[in-house]
UniProtKB/TrEMBL annotation:
Keywords: Membrane, Transmembrane, Transmembrane helix. The keyword Transmembrane helix applies. The chain crosses the membrane at residues 6-27, 34-52, 58-79, 91-109, 115-136, 148-171, 183-206. This is diguanylate cyclase. Residues 248-379 form the GGDEF domain. CDD domains: GGDEF (cd01949). It comes from Rhodopseudomonas palustris. One of its GO terms (cellular component) is plasma membrane. Its EC number is 2.7.7.65. Residues 385-399 have a biased composition (Basic and acidic residues).
Amino acid sequence: MSLDISTLFLVATLICALLGVMLHYFGRQEKISALNWWGNAYLLGAITVALWTVLRPVFGEAVTLGLAGVGFITCGMVWNAARVFHGLKPSWPGLFLGALVWAATVASLSPEQEALRMTVGAAIVAVYAALTASQLSAERRKSMQRRWPTIVVPLLHGTVLMLPIVLADLWPSPHSGLVGNAWVMLFAVELVLYAIGTVFVIFMLVTERTVTIHKTAASLDPLTGMLNRRGFSEACARMIDREVNAGRPVSAMIFDIDHFKSINDRFGHPAGDEVLKLFATIVAASLRISDLSGRIGGEEFAALLPCPIDEAVTAADRVREAFQNCGIEVDDAPVATTVSIGVAGGPAGIELDVLLAAADTALYQAKRGGRNRVVATAEQPVSLEESRRKAAQTREHQVVARGNSVGQAVA
């Protein structure tokens, strides 16, 4: 059974047009401008192939030369779509550069040099395919095992264009016309597969990007922009694993804004939210970029530092002092902003829960000592049960102390 070349190109045209409309639809639905770029490229490519199929038998080679330039613009649009998808601005010179090179080639080469023209045209497409593959694979190079189609599909397209030219140069054949027709048929089939394969790659990337965005949103506190408890725990687990391989100790801090309830009662919850956001900014500015910090609930924050406990105490006091001296006012009334901080350190490989429980014990000691201070654990935590027991004993002593104070006041 023989395949008609015109029929193959007609099928390619319809598929490209359908995919272009689909990409436009999803681009508007999801508000992703890169999908609109890809949709425009598919629609322009479909129009170009349709015009070539219809007009070539009538006007001959002139139509092929002219529409080839439009096809190179389409290739430039696909590359620019990959750029826009990764947050880059469109390259307008790059969009038209291939068409300009083709126009210069047609103007400078005689009709007898058709093979050289074909080589230049295929090379232009191959270059755009390589640029597209490079751009699509540039976002997360560590996950290349899952993203191999982003490289293979565009490079395969460029290879199909260049392979017959290379073979023709290496092994000239007296049946060049037959070989040329076979290659045109192969290209028509590959064009259909390339169109479908590229859309598969596009939606794979969009899906991965959407999942990443949702996962990131689920790990962040919407008010302060810091990691929430879940995100903080996951990030800390990765840090502890990394530090244990290097044999380095880690230290944890727990922050509790002093008398935060009274701030809400006196100035309202909007003012309290501003205090929380201000404290989050101070923590981020006072710690190193390698340190982790997050809001673990209410007015409580936590941090994990890859350093010994003495360095962590210095960093904690830096946060305390900066927050105390921030000078925030609400309705021209100054707001007293102080924070109590508990610090705990542990050897490489210590469990996060053990470290936080020890820091929590130190935090309650800071509150009992008068607040607005940094207290570090005197000894390293040994086990989670022991740390929890000490924390419970500290809370019990605090409750008893408050009860005694109230009894003395009544007496």
